[in-house]
Write a structure and sequence with these properties.
Shape: globular
Number of strands: 5
Helix content: 25-40%
CATH class: Alpha Beta
Bound molecules: coenzyme A
Strand content: 25-35%
Largest sheet: 3 strands, antiparallel
Oligomer: single chain
Number of domains: 1
CATH topology: Ribosomal Protein L22, Chain A
Distance between the termini: 9 Å
Amino acid sequence: MILAVGVDTVHLPSFRDQLADPASAFVIGTFTVAERVSSEARPGGDAARHLAVRFAAKEAFLKAWDGAYWGREPVMETVELTDIEVVSDPWGRPSLQLHGEVARAVAKLGEVRAHVSLSHDGDSAVAFVTLEARS
Ligand SMILES: CC(C)(COP(=O)(O)OP(=O)(O)OC[C@H]1O[C@@H](n2cnc3c(N)ncnc32)[C@H](O)[C@@H]1OP(=O)(O)O)[C@@H](O)C(=O)NCCC(=O)NCCS
């Protein structure tokens, strides 16, 4: 059963400005080491594009998760974005892995699978997440 969906768009030029701020802890606070390393390693050398779409995926996941509680209070006030990780298989297919507090809180919904699709083109990066209850 589909519990909820979430979508998010990131404006790439604004995202690049945010990454370029040397005083910002944004990257470390938002992305796992694996996300940073894999984005840096992409052919084409445009890590910001890959990080932007991963940021969109985290936001889209949060919308879907919150959507599953429609009409009720959210279960967490603040979320560590590094607890929501985009991993890619050797063919580039993305998937979401949840960690820490987020994984524990989502588990209260039962057996839930988060499906994700990513796209980036020009100045936009988009992510779409579907939360599926499997029990
Ligand atoms: C999947 C495919 C359409 C992606 O096209 P694209 O225009 O490069 O994709 P976009 O630029 O819109 O989006 C890029 C994102 O798509 C995702 N993606 C890449 N390959 C994917 C795949 N095979 N399946 C699902 N998502 C994929 C990635 O998350 C990527 O972002 P990232 O590199 O930052 O992780 C293209 O790689 C393709 O045609 N692959 C062949 C797949 C196929 O025919 N398989 C047979 C059926 S199994």
